[in-house]
Amino acid sequence: MKFTKPFQVPADEIEKRTRKIQAELARNNIDGVFIVQRTDLFYFSGTAQNGFLYIPVEGAPLLFIKQYLPRARSESSITEIIGIRSIKDIPGLIRDFHGQLPAVLGFELDVLPVNDFQFYKKLFKTTSHVDASGLILKIRQVKSEWEIEQMEVTAQMTSLTFEYMKSVIRPGITEMEFSGMFEAFARTIGQGGKLRVRNYQTEGYPWHVLSGKTGALPGLLDSPASGKGTSAAFPVGASHKKLCRNEPIMVDMGSVLNGYHMDETRMFAIESMPEKAIKACRACIEIHNAVLEKARPGVTLGRLFDLSVKMAEQLGYAENYLGVPGHRVTFIGHGIGLELIEAPFIARNREDCLETGMVFALEPKMVFENEFPAGIESVFQVTDKGARLISKVPVGIFVC
Amino acid sequence: MKFTKPFQVPADEIEKRTRKIQAELARNNIDGVFIVQRTDLFYFSGTAQNGFLYIPVEGAPLLFIKQYLPRARSESSITEIIGIRSIKDIPGLIRDFHGQLPAVLGFELDVLPVNDFQFYKKLFKTTSHVDASGLILKIRQVKSEWEIEQMEVTAQMTSLTFEYMKSVIRPGITEMEFSGMFEAFARTIGQGGKLRVRNYQTEGYPWHVLSGKTGALPGLLDSPASGKGTSAAFPVGASHKKLCRNEPIMVDMGSVLNGYHMDETRMFAIESMPEKAIKACRACIEIHNAVLEKARPGVTLGRLFDLSVKMAEQLGYAENYLGVPGHRVTFIGHGIGLELIEAPFIARNREDCLETGMVFALEPKMVFENEFPAGIESVFQVTDKGARLISKVPVGIFVC
Fold first, then answer.
1. Is there a contact between B219 and A112 if contact means CB atoms under 8 Å apart?
2. Structural fold of domain A11-140
3. Which of A109, A162, B96, B350 could bond to A393 as cystine, CB 3.0-4.6 Å?
4. Predicted complex ipTM
5. Hey, are the CB atoms on A201 and B36 less than 8 Å from each other?
6. Secondary structure of A1-67 in the HEC alphabet?
7. Contact A49/B183, CB-based, under 8 Å?
């Protein structure tokens, strides 16, 4: 089974997204938004070519393409697609089309580097410049039915990849080698490329294989365990340590197809796993299932987090839940979609509520210092009736 | 042969780099630099853990670690390593140690997002805030002997990976599948993780396999050819197209070991390649060799670029060199080191000169629209006597 058929974002998706951002712009007295970042550009235009998208609070969006026009035209349903030689042409083209430049112009200030922003500020001289990233992320965090369908397909692909892992895991191969094997497989069935992350310091990669003692190492990541990595230069994820029999092996795999990500974790063992580890993994699954049970529209994100902590305590894992003492993380899940990690976060003290259409990667995890990591991660959508798993990987421990 | 032995940046490297940036700070009347970006942090401290590095114009650098202290301590030779609970503690800790806060503080404004910078500006209230990224990149672009040695080891690894490609390339596998095969191999011998790039819009990935007609597609990249990619969401690099006999296949592989990158391109063919393509590949090799011949300290980067264009014209490739008409790139090479693509660029009109210790990826390429891409890419260092190849992949066309 392969997942490689041609793909296009439907025109009505782009229209709905455009109307949503225009409503947000109106509500916030912003006259337009200038979209530069690749994922946002793809979200609002359907193309990821080298371009810039201007969405006015009213009227037609203008897509400016810097390099090769034909591909953008074939990919995007935006009506006004304009080839440009230089980005300096853009303000004039906006004025030509819309009669005026926006007085208040929004930018993606959560990702735009300072020097780039200085350049854009000079380019749009007549406007005041505000942060529109919050509005963009707010819209993106609620997925349409079409988007959920895309994520279902990614989930089918990753489910096959986890099946493949079971068939090839063996003692003596390194964590990196194992990751190469399943990634090579994923590419044969459709794996779509690079995992996209928003924050400039976050490094998305699909080889987060953490085995045994070094797998439990805390470190760089804002995650219960960081793993050993390959060197001080890349001190996270899979290392050149060999996989052994009877040790807990955590595989946390990010994946992407047609722009839509999955992020899923399962515990593996070769032949067997110590009883202590099996119990911990089962406790994580219990917490995972309990959170899913309680996740429905109107519940605050902070309450789901607290529930999970309380349950971990009751199960006897207060010392291990979400990291080693002094280095615990304060979240158990994150939004996911066109980026591997998106808003919102199922985190301590978060008072915002779950909404129908939100999609989360839920990852209750534990760390036993100098012993092993344990946990599970699945992607679920929030429906009117409650949580529904998008992930299709069986919920369990894989002893191979 | 494996390249997985433990690795640490020597203390005297860190000291030399510190002295260099301090001299630049003094020359520019900046009292200190606050380093946040991971690659710069690793360059100046030897650790890539979650931290912040303050280097004053005089005196000891302070490394603040936000999460797990023991790993930073074991990796970095910096003397003053301080664990912090919150980044808000940093200004007080600087004042405690150095007696005062810097009046003028430098930041990495080429990468720091606007919202992050606003936060840092509020944190360091008593200072004025300037861009220090140019100074950092200027220092990083000249490599030490130790750094060249690291790149030599990466080059040994990639040379074996190209050998492996020859042994497994075959008709009927897709570009993505082929890329998965050689990447899995690379991970068994030492491949160190994610390719690091500086610009927030640049996506480094090691599966740039461009075959035949779709391989010649221009698009998103500031590169002669972008390839087809897997979908509109990721429209660059390898696609799910199958490799065929008798077609030109370009493999442009970025690679990394212990933080140091290689970026190398070779043309492959299965059984044979059309005569027209062979001639074009040979022309690229001629240009590549001629540029290497002329590359020595004191020559301007722009002159090397011009030389290559002139040669391409003389060889009859004016229409194809560096891209299709209307979409040509204006560079033939880029710095490389801790990032896959670094300053400076061998580009049109660049009047800065080559210096001993600079390292470049040189990539004269051609595009035959609707037919195929052609080209070569090698990494070389600038020595007092001229260019010296670091790349160890044989210079030639690989017909397998």
1. no
2. Creatine Amidinohydrolase; Chain A, domain 1 (3.40.350)
3. A162
4. 0.97
5. yes
6. CCCCCCCCCCHHHHHHHHHHHHHHHHHCCCCEEEECCHHHHHHHHCCCCCEEEEEECCCCCEEEECC
7. no
